[in-house]
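Replying to the earlier thread about multi-chain prediction with a worked example.

Input:
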Amino acid sequence: MSEVIERPGERPGAHGARPDLKVVGTRPVRPDGADKVTGRALYGADLSLPGMLVGKVARSPHAHARIVSIDTRRARALPGVKAIVTSADFPDLASEEYEAGESASNLRDLSMNVMARDKALYHGHAVAAVAAVSASVAEEAIDLLEIVYEPLPHVTDVELAMASDAPVLHEHLFTGGLETRPDKPSNIAKRNAIVRGDLAAGFAQAEVVVESRYVTAATHQGYIEPHACVANWAPDGQCQVWASSQGQFMVRTYCAKVLGLEASNIRVTPAEIGGGFGGKTTVYLEPLALALSRQCGAPVKMVMSREEVFRATGPTSASVMEVKLGALKDGTIVAADVVLKYQAGAFPGSPVGAGSMTALACYDVPNFSIVGYDVITNTPKVAAYRAPGAPISAFAVESAIDELALKLGMDPIALREKNAVRDGMKAAYGPTYRNIGYVETLEAIRSHPHYAQPLGPNQGRGVAVGFWFNVGGESTATVNVNEDGSAVVATGNPDIGGSRASMAMMAAEVLGLPVEKVRPIVADTASIGFSMLTGGSRTTFATGMAVTQAAQKVVEDLRGRAALLWDVPIDQVEWIGGAAVCLDASKAKGELTLAALAAQSARTGGPIGAQVSLTAQGAGPGFGAHICDVEVDPETGHVTILRYTAAQDVGRAIHPDYVEGQVQGGVAQGVGWALNEEYIFDGAGEMENPGFLDYRCPVASDLPMIDAILVEVPNPRHPFGAKGVGEVPIVPPLAAVANAVRRAIGKRMTSLPMSPPKILAAIEETEGA
Amino acid sequence: MTRRRHVTTTVNGDPAEFLCEPGTTLLDAIRDELGLTGSKEGCGSGDCGACSIMLDGRLVCSCLVLAVEAEGRRIETIEGMAEGGELHPLQRKFLEHGALQCGFCTPGLLVAAKALLETNPDPSESETRYWLAGNLCRCTGYDKVIRAVLDAAAELRQARIPA
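Result:
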């Protein structure tokens, strides 16, 4: 079972245990729950409009090709075909960086990823789109498009793409981040470096050194809901989009940019989202559906197949990494040399920057160098995937730390604790840590019964840790009081994993209402102020802060109205347990409940409500520490996860069920990444496994129960102490599983996924040696 | 355009008719012709289980069944699981345990779990995990899903014991 560790008294002031909290920290049924267990919740593909057409995308059958010509005449002549768009229907945008989520996007690249211009850069790249009266007619029309390609040499492998003789995808791309501008274009979009101290001196001082090369495969976010939207372009130029995404404002901005429209002409209504994990922080179909709708004057629905999802969305980077660590005999790490080569896909923008910044974020190392390369390949442009970049570099670094522990003969938790970052230390990526709960998570796994449980033959236990920044940013919330004394909370953040529950709970806590009396909604872009997308583990932190402040404004208003009714100064009115109480007993006895004040609102100033828009700062970074037990079948190389325990500093769990759920879900994705999941390309650069049968996500029988330990070291910048939660849990598992396998078979697996053939080969190599 | 076929069937206890092309999947007919969008398409190839329904009392992926095959047969979908206004114990336990995050796989998981408990009222954790191995969930890591199903099974067994 999962447990919550509180540490009352360890932290001074109001930030320890909070016995005053009535709602925060409890486990009520989520407000959108009934809709989701009865099939009533409407996801991206569930909306239909009268007269709606079906849109489909024509995709490149080549990994790299010049688009010589597209002749649409035969397709247009097919009865039932209503619109066809190609890159000619979209403005040719200038190169411009735009910040709209977890990472910056270049608008020109975004536009060319949505619809190929001049060149198709990966197998599955969109080259045209068709709207027709039915899916079968649209598909027939796509077959009738006459597209002439001039195939070009392609490259899908990271290191081959870096070679000087590699086919270059972008003739205008020169490696950034170098001291002198190179004279030749290259697939290396950028080099970044973070350094501290004197690396050579550090290694000279080292008594023990470990060094290895690590490789990971591209993996997909694997949300079960394919991308889907409905778009309607009215004759007056007003556009509506209903879409499943991580941010309705992101969809609005990107559609406006890609189509050359004013954002104010587009209204985006968020559908329920069937998983995203970062993969729905950009647009694919929405601009196409709008362009088709503009051409034919009817609403257009577009839904991807699973194959399209694999071929043309996500994934995250494949990588090649080198890690060298030097330590003293007592375990003190004195030097670290890390090189990261991350696949960006067809356009620049792999998460190698975040991979670099997180690589040593758990360690206090005096001398290090972290160098990252952002590498273009003929594969789909990578999208954010849960703690983008961090699980990859953590796989390499945490494997190396485990090797170091083995070489030193040290307990892996003790080695990490000896080199752990603590409050007041400067993080490898720059800032100074405050209110972090890292050593507390290490202590939580060390003292957990799991760590002492005996192991059998062919079994091994791995430990790994992980870090993620978590972000704040812009959010808006409104709280309106109904005449019956209930409240509605509106935010601009899609609910991807239970955030409606946490929003309602925070508002209920402040208002003093039972949580059932607070209805949370996710509003469209015309009904709520701007909010950054649901990503970066920001919603409970940043939007929760807006909700809390809006509820506090409502309470101020309610106190003022009670003061008016009682004819006392407002400082004589306190808000206790959902009611105004007068401190001056001579003026008023009893209390005025929220319901009583709401009923009299017409004569105390009108309807009661408040809005808060803010830019949240001070999102506390998150740390996790995991233990994984595996058993390796020596006959087949198959790995069974026997037991898994994950401790994480969450600041304060608003709704512990959904916090544990984030931890468990992140672990499951990490286990899939470690053992099974990978993009496999054939010689022509076509993904060979674009379906859930051959791209193997973990199923229920692949996993044990996952024990989530919630460590609560509150974040003083959040009204209830919350820190971001959703991303940290996917960071440690890749290495936790690899370290367990290492201890089970006596051989270090340096390449993911650790599929049975690879493990079998490693076992046989060991036995042969 | 291909001539559409007329199909007569029973959906959640009520008679239902629809027109479909010969190649239309039962999932598409249920969603687009009958308007029951609780069954989801996650893969279209029978690998994710989001489209799970009961066809003549047997658990199937409706994306792998042709709509014309439903002629004269009995279909049960997620929309028929709650009786009147009352949630099925599995639905209630999913909510009590927080066994869903995005909720997209939830209808399929519930239909499959109900089929399990009709076959095996007292499944072990392992039996439950293998039965639900055809239903992908990417959010939860299955932990709370399994707990919810086992808890619902216990409650349903308790309800069967005569007072």
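The helical segments of chain B are 26-33, 89-96, 106-119, 125-131, 143-160.

Feel free to reuse this layout for your own posts.
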